[in-house]
C-alpha cells in the first residue's frame, strides 16, 4: 500500500508538471509566437480563465506539494468503488446459496 501511495503521488506530480507545460505553452508561449495583434485561441482563452495564476501574475504555471497531494486524493476517490447496498448484499447472498444448492450432489433414496 505504501508503494502504491508513493506511485500515485509521483503520477499526480507528473500530471501536474505536464499540465503546467501545456498551460505555459497555450497561455504564454503561443500568443507570443503568433504576434502582438493576434487573438488567443479558444483553448488558450479557456485555460487562461479556468486556471488563472494570479500568484505569478500569469507568467508561469506554479504548483506546490500540497497541490500534488490534493490531486492524488481526488484521484484516489475517483478510483474507489461504491460500497454495496443492503439489497445488493442480499441478492449476492441468495445467488451464492442457489449456486451452492445447485452444485451439491442430490441424494437419491
Shape label: elongated
What fraction strand? under 5%
| Order of SSEs | HHHH
End-to-end distance: 54 Å
Poorly predicted regions are none
**Structural class of the secondary elements?**
mainly alpha
Radius of gyration: 26 Å
> Which oligomeric state applies?
single chain
Q: What is the typical, i.e. mean, pLDDT? A: 83
Number of strands: 0
Described by strand count, sense and barrel closure, the largest sheet is: none
Helix content: 55-70%
| Total of DSSP H or I helical runs spanning 4+ residues | 4
Structure description:
The chain is mainly alpha-helical and 109 residues long. Helix content is 69%, strand content 0%. The chain is built from 4 helices and no strands. The chain has helices at residues 2-34, 42-50, 65-79, 86-103. Helix 1 packs across helix 2 and helix 1 (2-34) crosses helix 3. The N and C termini lie far apart (54 Å).
Blueprint of the fold:
Elements: H1 2-34, H2 42-50, H3 65-79, H4 86-103
Helix pairs in contact: 1-2, 1-3
Write a short abstract of this structure.
This protein is mostly helical and 109 residues long. The protein has four helices and no strands.
Task: Describe the structure using short key phrases.
109 residues, mainly alpha
Amino acid at each position: 500500500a505504501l508503494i502504491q501511495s508513493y506511485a500515485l503521488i509521483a503520477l499526480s506530480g507528473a500530471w501536474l508538471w505536464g499540465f503546467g507545460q501545456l498551460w505555459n505553452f497555450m497561455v504564454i508561449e503561443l500568443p507570443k509566437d503568433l504576434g502582438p495583434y493576434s487573438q488567443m485561441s479558444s483553448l488558450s482563452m479557456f485555460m487562461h480563465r479556468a486556471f488563472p495564476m494570479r500568484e505569478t501574475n500569469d507568467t508561469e504555471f506554479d504548483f506546490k506539494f500540497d497541490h500534488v497531494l490534493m490531486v492524488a486524493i481526488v484521484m484516489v476517490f475517483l478510483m474507489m468503488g461504491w460500497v454495496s447496498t443492503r439489497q445488493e448484499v442480499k441478492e449476492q447472498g441468495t445467488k451464492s446459496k442457489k449456486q451452492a444448492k445447485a452444485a451439491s450432489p442430490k441424494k437419491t433414496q
